[in-house]
Amino acid sequence: MADFRTRLFPGSARLIELADRVNTLQVEALCWCGERATHNARTINGVMVTEGEQVVVGDTNTQNEVAYEVLCRRHHMRRVTAKKSGAAHQSPEPLPFN
Q1: Going from the N-terminus, what domains does the chain have, and what CATH number goes with each?
Q2: Would you say 72 and 33 are in contact if contact means Cβ atoms under 8 Å apart?
Q3: How would residue 6 be classed by pLDDT, with cut points 50, 70 and 90?
Q4: Alpha carbons 12 and 31: distance in angstroms, whole number
Q5: Tell me: the pLDDT tens digits for 9-23?
Q6: Helix, strand or coil for residue 78?
Q7: Pairwise CA distance, residues 53 & 11, whole Å
Q8: How confident is residue 89, by pLDDT bands cut at 50, 70 and 90?
Q9: Which of 13, 24, 29, 82 could join 8 in a cystine, given CB atoms 3.0 to 4.6 angstroms apart?
């Protein structure tokens, strides 16, 4: 519902304005620490950023690697990503969603 800067997308903001209730999904996204993930983090070359354009289109002519990670509120506020924490269970393999 919110971008990496913690700002609501326009469509999400409107849905919240109109909603009578909010239901939490049964399957929760988890932060690398195991807590419920509530925030999106954008990383550039492994470093979390909190400013920039809302939408980034991949550029194959650049050396910068843009990636996203879900984090709990505590780790998002402290800017601690899985890579920065040295979490042992992170996987470089993408999920098989074809």
Answers
A1: 10-85 (3.30.60.20)
A2: yes
A3: confident
A4: 22
A5: 888 889 888 988 878
A6: helix
A7: 17
A8: low
A9: 13
CA distance linking residue 28 with residue 63, whole number of Å: 33
Contact 53, 20 (CB under 8 A): no
Q: pLDDT tens digits for 37-70?
A: 989 999 888 888 888 887 777 666 667 888 889 9
- Rounded CA-CA distance 82/3 in Å is 19
pTM of the predicted model as reported, rounded to 2 decimal places: 0.65
Q: Which residue has the tokens 């913690």?
A: 6
How far is it, in rounded angstroms, from Cα 31 to Cα 33?
Answer: 5
